[in-house]
Design goal:
Layout lengths: L18 E8 L5 H11 L3 E2 L11 E4 L2 E4 L10 E6 L3 H14 L6 E4 L4 E4 L5 E5 L11 E9 L4 H10 L6 E5 L2 E8 L3 E7 L11 E6 L3 H9 L3 E6 L2 E8 L6 E11 L36
Parallel strand pairs: 1-4, 5-8, 9-12, 13-16
Antiparallel strand pairs: 1-13, 2-3, 3-4, 5-9, 6-7, 7-8, 10-11, 11-12, 14-15, 15-16
């Protein structure tokens, strides 16, 4: 009897790039009331019960990621934030119910073939997907942030992330659009999509990422004059994404860069089950897991 052939594994699928976490999207909001109505009540997300519990800032948990929503003049991420939410029908009911409370704002939503696109009261676009194989194990989370980029910039942006941040970045056509695909840790992506639409001026909105090699990119960014904030031992910031070959600024989005030694790295987050209410309450079902179960 012949022995069964040994299994063959593609070990490259286990590789994790230098960006190991897409932690949060930060946009200022003028009013915490409508922000709560949209991000917590309508989307069904969870206000962090431990951090920023006052009335001037709110951290909103979505799986292992967050929105940070400090009070101030409104900011808009130039693109779209992708979410995975587990119950599409319940989401549509919550969004419909929010119409009355958010009347007169920029709030809107539309159902597409593969997602529900919602717009916050100040114009931030959120694309909500059900769990799908392309999002790996995520049942609740933030699998991508897709940023707008000017025509002809994709290859230079990819070079920036490969050569300066030291992480994989590929360019491919997606629905006829040149798209930079940057893997972020496990089951997350940072995307840049070329567009002919006018791109608004940078208004200070930022994304937060964590790096395995924290000092290498720092030295390269510093040498290029791109560091904009020396936050603390565990964190720095930059804004300009440039082509390393020409040093031309291709797009601007602030990156809050953290090390894996940052006290908040991989912090466990509380996620509620938005189906729970005082009417028809189900004991033991208050929490919702971010990942898909097996079996």
């Amino acid at each position: 009897m012949m022995d069964a052939p040994a299994p063959v594994y593609d070990r490259t699928t286990e590789d994790v790039g230098n960006i190991v976490e897409l932690g949060h999207v930060n946009v200022r909001v003028p009013d915490q009331g409508p922000a709560t109505q949209f991000y917590v009540s309508a989307l069904g997300l969870t206000r962090d019960p431990y951090m920023m519990t006052g009335t001037t800032n709110m951290w909103v948990n979505v799986g292992r990621g967050q929105f940070h929503l400090p009070t101030g003049g409104p900011q808009v991420i130039g693109g779209v934030t992708g979410l995975v939410l587990p119950d599409t029908e319940a989401l549509l009911r919550r969004l419909s119910a929010a119409r009355r409370m958010l009347q007169g704002t920029g709030f809107a939503f539309v159902e597409r073939d593969d997602a529900i696109e919602a717009t916050c009261p100040w114009g931030n676009r959120i694309r909500c997907h059900p769990p799908e194989p392309r999002f790996g194990a995520i049942a609740l989370g933030m699998p991508y942030v897709a940023l707008d980029a000017p025509p002809g910039s994709a290859q230079g942006i990819a070079r920036f992330y490969r050569e300066v941040l030291g992480t994989p970045a590929d360019v491919a056509e997606e629905a006829g659009v040149a798209t930079v695909n940057i893997p972020v840790g496990i089951d997350q992506r940072l995307l840049f999509r070329e567009t002919d639409r006018p791109i608004p001026s940078f208004d200070g909105a930022h994304i937060q990422v964590s790096l395995a090699d924290f000092s290498g990119p720092y030295k390269r960014l510093l040498a290029m004059g791109l560091i904009t904030e020396e936050s603390d031992q565990h964190q720095y910031r930059f804004q300009a994404v440039v082509d390393p070959e020409t040093r031309r600024v291709l797009c601007t989005v602030e990156h809050e860069v953290r090390s894996m030694r940052h006290p908040l790295y991989a912090r466990a987050l509380v996620n509620r089950n938005p189906a729970q209410s005082n009417v028809g309450y189900a004991p033991g079902h208050d929490a919702r897991a971010w990942g898909l179960g097996h079996g």
